[in-house]
Amino acid sequence: MTVTLNQLQSFLAVTRSGSVSGAAEELVVTQPSVSAALRALSRELGVELTERSGRGIQLSPAGRAFLPFASNVLGLLEQGRQAAREAAGRSAGLVRIAAVTTAGEYLAPALVQAFRARRPNAELTLEVANRERVFRWVLDHDADVAIGGRAPGDDRLVGEPFLPNELVLITSRDDPLAGRGDVPIAELAERTWLLREEGSGTRSMIEELLALHGLRPRTLPFGSNGAIKHAVRIGLGVSVQSRIAVELELRTGMLAAIRLREGLPERQWYALRSAVGPQRPLVTDFLAFVHTPEARAAIEVAQRP
What we know:
- This protein is of the alpha/beta class.
- Helix content is 46%, strand content 21%.
């Protein structure tokens, strides 16, 4: 079997864009060359990888099965190129970090700063998105490390917890429930619960919590931690957020917390990587660093008012 890089690149570009024209524009080639590459790849594999869908094309069942393997091949080759450059002294080293939104806003920057102090010549990049996109970047080798919650039962991702992720039920500072002891969650059944966007791990956790206790309250989606905190502050509803995201507001009295009798789920922050292929030395160093007292100290300093 002779599969070329051009064929794989064309296949993945079509997958991302949903059309030959979009793939051609992304790769800066002609549409006939993309179509030819797809046909050649299908011939080599002996199956059709795409099928028509309206004016565009979509992956066939065979194409969907082949997709993660194609992504791994190209991703590992890029990792190998970077490893070779680092070994030859052509690059000081690169760590591409992807973080879920809360970690990206309140946790990962402190880790990046502290690791740069240890390895000043290394290049670190940080991309922030919701849980689904972050894990996809790591699986596709578009990121070396993910900072987020526990891996979603996918054996292609491995990770270890490095820091507790305490959750807090936040409310407005004048909420009478905030001054009480343990509050049964049933008392919040008539409240509005504010949620993050689809694909957010925090949103999934809140939905699971409400379902566990048989509650179906009114919910409102908001697109960011900041928007939710402001909405809670002015009394639009309640929400659950990581303590690292609301510590300043709780300390200064801008927000208050409700202590649930049933408690909130216990969570951890994880550093995750792809289980496929070797890791470059600098990536391994960063993964080890997040477990050090130095890293924890940097995070604690960043949380101070």
